[in-house]
Specification:
Blueprint (H helix, E strand, L loop, with lengths): L1 H8 L1 H23 L18 H4 L7 H32 L5 H7 L2 H4 L2 H14 L6 H25 L3 H9 L4 H30 L2 H6 L6 H11 L3 H34 L1
Helix pairs in contact: 2-13, 4-8, 4-10, 4-12, 8-10, 9-10
Length: 268
Amino acid sequence: MAATRWIRRNLVVIAGVLTLAYMIVPNVVVMVFSFNKPAGRFNYAWQHFSLDAWKSPCGAAGLCDSLGLSLQIAVWATLTATVLGTMIAFALVRYRFHGRGPVNSLIFLPMAMPEVVMAASLLTLFLNLGAQLGYVTILIAHIMFCLSFVVTAVKARVLSMDPRLEEAARDLYAGPVQTFVRVTLPIAAPGIVAGALLAFALSFDDFIITNFNAGSTVTFPMFVWGSAQRGTPVQINVIGTAMFIIAVALVVGGQLISNRRKKTAATA
């Protein structure tokens, strides 16, 4: 009975821990097998501990080229989608204009539409326009589907903002630019950063839309998929582990900075 009562009291915590473990276990497997030295081409069974893959992460032909290309596309797609998405979010929340309702609804279509449908539609569009499939078409496609996620994240933040803070800044003789830079932007920054991080992750990770519109261009997800057909190099696990560690470090660092600011504001 005591055990049953304890489980009932901590049911939410137990569910959260199990869910977190379910999400983390694949990453742990990737980390472990980044130190493996497989006997054959496939890195699916543990053989021997080795640091060879970490010493030469670009040992697999074409891996670092595809990784650099994916990072470059993700950065440009994130920057463009974040700027456009932020402006769209502010326009949808702060202004009333003809067609605002349909735009507000249509902005969610890329999020709701199956990726394979969007990929085929974009391919049809590019072919009808006579565009050469490659870097530019991938970038355009990534900006398009990242835009919706940025708008959603920033819009949620802008809706929670208190307009009286901006009115107070204007009452203190702050100009429009000064009010935006010193008041509006810092308040909206968490939503903008969240949208940017989400856009970067989606762009870097995308395979389906990229595969339809890449032509002969090979991004990192496409390289991983192609390698899985003929043998998975250990360096793929190394890159995956490095990306996971960097992402966790950014999240933990952001949380620590946020906590420090809250403590500073509380003691001030």
